[in-house]
Amino acid sequence: MVLAGSPIIVSSRYAKVLRDIAVQSQGFTDLSIIIPVYNVSPLLFHRCLESITKQDGISAIRYEIIVVVDGAENNQDLLNSGLLDSDSHIHVIVKSAGGVAQARNRGIDEAIGRWILFVDADDYLPDGAIQALFNETTSNNADIIVSNHARQHGQNQQLISYYDEKKYWDKTDSLNFIQHVLSVGSDQGTVWAKLFKSRFLKNSNERFDSRLLNGEDQEYLVRLVRHMPNITAIPDNTYIYVYNPSSSVRSFNNHYLEDILQTVNVIDDDLRRSELSQDVFNTVFGLYCLDRLLLLIMNWICNPNAPWSYRERRMVFRETCRNTHFAHALKTVPLNRIDSITRRITLFFAKNNLFLLISFIAWLRHRQLKH
């Protein structure tokens, strides 16, 4: 759906009334693209926006771009850039700062598309991405369509080919998709590179948990999958995730362990409420815990910006590995279930308390990402 004229800034009840009138007069649109924005540079946002509006075949799709500005005070550069006035498909929502979960929830509530696509403001779509996803909207009565993606470090891109062919999960076996959502190092727990049927999302009454500051995507997807959707996977690359060395994930956060453990505990509870068998639960949750431990090792314990000496890092490492969830996973989950040799070796060293070797691997990894 194309809203005529300038984008609607939802800052009052009158603006909301105008949007409702537009919806009633023109009907629902095909696609709502939700972009949460927090302190992103106008240059990166422009790249993101252009990757959407210049997609092959996009003119044949009625769409809206919902830009949720998470706090006006932290986004003045973008608000003053003119980019939000550059396309009549853009629908801008300026809300008080509350985090990405709240921003995405607001986007879901406002969306009028039959399908919903999440895009982060500093990432972008490869050409043909939307068409590849939309080609599957009528197959298998899909509620969720998932795909491959690429990771970009500087000018270099690495294609993550998780799906080598089309795959399907119907309502009878969609719970098995949880193992992909919680898989190690695959990015399958993100909401990007996926297309969601709006009716399914809204009827599920599930929303992102705004209490969670890390891994809220995975936790949200676990709850969604418990509603037994029809899921289609395609081998196409539909998303470019851009590695940002200054992001909240990589910059040192003294509360990182606390944030991760909060999400781990919530997902533990989510899984126990599902109908997974005990064996599947133990394996799936154990692998997820190992993935979280790897994040802690690389982004927190061995973070170059951490204010710790080597001795202090080693003490923090040992204490972290003693956590009930992590210790149980290291003890019970076979490391041959981990695809990556580097991750498998790192976890083997963690299991045997060989922190010197882990710190060397982490140093190499950070040096690689820096360049």
From TrEMBL:
<keyword id="KW-0808">Transferase</keyword>
<keyword id="KW-0812">Transmembrane</keyword>
<keyword id="KW-1133">Transmembrane helix</keyword>
<keyword id="KW-0472">Membrane</keyword>
<dbReference type="InterPro" id="IPR029044">
    <property type="entry name" value="Nucleotide-diphossugar_trans"/>
</dbReference>
<feature type="transmembrane region" description="Helical">
    <location>
        <begin position="345"/>
        <end position="364"/>
    </location>
</feature>
<dbReference type="InterPro" id="IPR001173">
    <property type="entry name" value="Glyco_trans_2-like"/>
</dbReference>
<dbReference type="GO" id="GO:0016757">
    <property type="term" value="F:glycosyltransferase activity"/>
</dbReference>
<feature type="domain" description="Glycosyltransferase 2-like">
    <location>
        <begin position="32"/>
        <end position="156"/>
    </location>
</feature>
<keyword id="KW-0328">Glycosyltransferase</keyword>
<dbReference type="Pfam" id="PF00535">
    <property type="entry name" value="Glycos_transf_2"/>
</dbReference>
<protein>
    <recommendedName>
        <fullName>Glycosyltransferase 2-like domain-containing protein</fullName>
    </recommendedName>
</protein>
